[in-house]
Every structure is written in structure tokens, then in C-alpha cells.
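in:
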């Protein structure tokens, strides 16, 4: 698996409290099958006090991984909070995923801000390919799932969080992520792991998708699309008309009795 969203660099943002904790979780991730981990500390315009520590602490983490014989490939990127002048900062601070035009972005959890459309458009116009982190967590999408499809029509890719399937962010988010998955309104699944949460779940969510949908979808979201993204290749935005969940007992009964 390739996990494209995580907060595990020691002592920056709200991810990991220290090197020891980061190493502990990296060992666990390796055990459960993560081969590449993209580290995405928050880039929030108004709180840049730790920004200079990111590169240094990333190097310390990489060196320690080598000493500890951890084989996961680490890639350093950012999770960028959208705001109207983000484009300038993307160029200034090199906030795109290295070697690619892709950029992992997030926005406010309540209603999408007024500048959302225009800011996304400015990124697209300048050749960036935005990946919206955890669409299922935004009220705007919870209330109107078809907004996700609209975003896809505008060439915006969607990355769902594994924890959403297990109720980490509540029942509404869980319901929303299942709808997104079944409609094919997602392109990546990632852990968005914060060490303090102590519940890494990417492998479990991928197994759940394999069981409830199929291996193709699980692989597409956790391996195929992430690998294409890291190679800066195009990703197919509309890949199915509709994902059909496997039959369960209730749907079988409904079909047999034609109800
Ligand atoms: Fe995140």
C-alpha cells in the first residue's frame, strides 16, 4: 500500500509527539503492508512557526529509519489549507507533492468558504492537480453528496480517510464515506494518521473495501492511483458508473421476493 496522507514527522504540527513515537508507528505500518508513506504536515498560513523544523525533523526521521532497518519509503509533502492567496505560497514554499503537479489540499469543515471555487480554479489554471483531503468530513459534502461529483467534473481528485469507515469522525462522516465509495467518488484512500490517535486503520479499511466491494477498487485507491500520482501520471477521474456492493443477506432477500 501507498499511504499519501500522514502526520508523523516528530515535533511538528499535531502529528507525532516525538521521534520514538514516530518510529513505533512506522514499524507498525511496515508490518501491516505500507511500502511508501507520504508525510504531509499541515501548511496553515497563520501558523508557520514550525515550518522551518519540518525539513530538519524529516531528515532525522529518515536517518533513524535507516538505522532501525525500516524499509518504508518516505516522501515529504504538505497538507495545504486553502485560502485566497495560496497560489503564491505554493510557488514560494514548494507545497506540491515533490516531482509532481499534484497538491494535497484541505478546507474548512463547515460550509466550503466563499473563495473555495475561485482558489481551486486558480490552482487548476496554473497546472496544479488538487487532491481534496477527506471530502467526507466537510458538511457541504455530507449535505449534498453530488457536490463530490461536481468537484470531479472540475478535475479535482478526492482522498478519503480510512478512519471514516470505522466511525473515527462520527456517524455522518461514516455514512458519507460509504456513499462516496459506492458511487466511485474517490480516488485515494489514506490513513491521515495522527500518532496521538493511536489507531492506524488503512490496512483494515482496504480489507473492508476488498470484502464489501472488490479487490479492484481496494487496489485502485490504495496502490494504483497513489503510484500514478507519485509518478505524476494522469489519474482517471470517472472510473466506474457505479460500484456495486456485494450481495448481503438483506439485498438477497429483497431480490428473491422482488421488494
Ligand atoms: Fe491531515
Amino acid at each position: 500500500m501507498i499511504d499519501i496522507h500522514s502526520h508523523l514527522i516528530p515535533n511538528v504540527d499535531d502529528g507525532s509527539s516525538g521521534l520514538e513515537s514516530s518510529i513505533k508507528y512506522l514499524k507498525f505500518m511496515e508490518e501491516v503492508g505500507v511500502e511508501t508513506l507520504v508525510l504531509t504536515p499541515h501548511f496553515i498560513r497563520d501558523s508557520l512557526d514550525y515550518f522551518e523544523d519540518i525539513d530538519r525533523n524529516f531528515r532525522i526521521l529518515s536517518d533513524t529509519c535507516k538505522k532501525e532497518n525500516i524499509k518504508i519509503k518516505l516522501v515529504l509533502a504538505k497538507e495545504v489549507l486553502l485560502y485566497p492567496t495560496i497560489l503564491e505560497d505554493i510557488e514560494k514554499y514548494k507545497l506540491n507533492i515533490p516531482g509532481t503537479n499534484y497538491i494535497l489540499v484541505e478546507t474548512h469543515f463547515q460550509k466550503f468558504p466563499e473563495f473555495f471555487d475561485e482558489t481551486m480554479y486558480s490552482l487548476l489554471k496554473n497546472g496544479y492537480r488538487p487532491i481534496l483531503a477527506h471530502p467526507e468530513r466537510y458538511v457541504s459534502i455530507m449535505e449534498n453528496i453530488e457536490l463530490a461529483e461536481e468537484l470531479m467534473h472540475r478535475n479535482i481528485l478526492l482522498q478519503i480517510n480510512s478512519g471514516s469507515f470505522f466511525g473515527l469522525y462520527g456517524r455522518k462522516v461514516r455514512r458519507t464515506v460509504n456513499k462516496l465509495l459506492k458511487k466511485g467518488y474517490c480516488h485515494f484512500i489514506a490513513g491521515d494518521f495522527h500518532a496521538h490517535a493511536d489507531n492506524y486503520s488503512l490496512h483494515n479499511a482496504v480489507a473492508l473495501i476488498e470484502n464489501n466491494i472488490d479487490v479492484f477498487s481496494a487496489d485502485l485507491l490504495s496502490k494504483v492511483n497513489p503510484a500514478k500520482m507519485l509518478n505524476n501520471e494522469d489519474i482517471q477521474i470517472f472510473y466506474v458508473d457505479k460500484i456495486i456492493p456485494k450481495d448481503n443477506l438483506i439485498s438477497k432477500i429483497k431480490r428473491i421476493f422482488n421488494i
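note: Residues 5, 7, 79, 133, 192 surround fe (ii) ion (CB under 6 Å).
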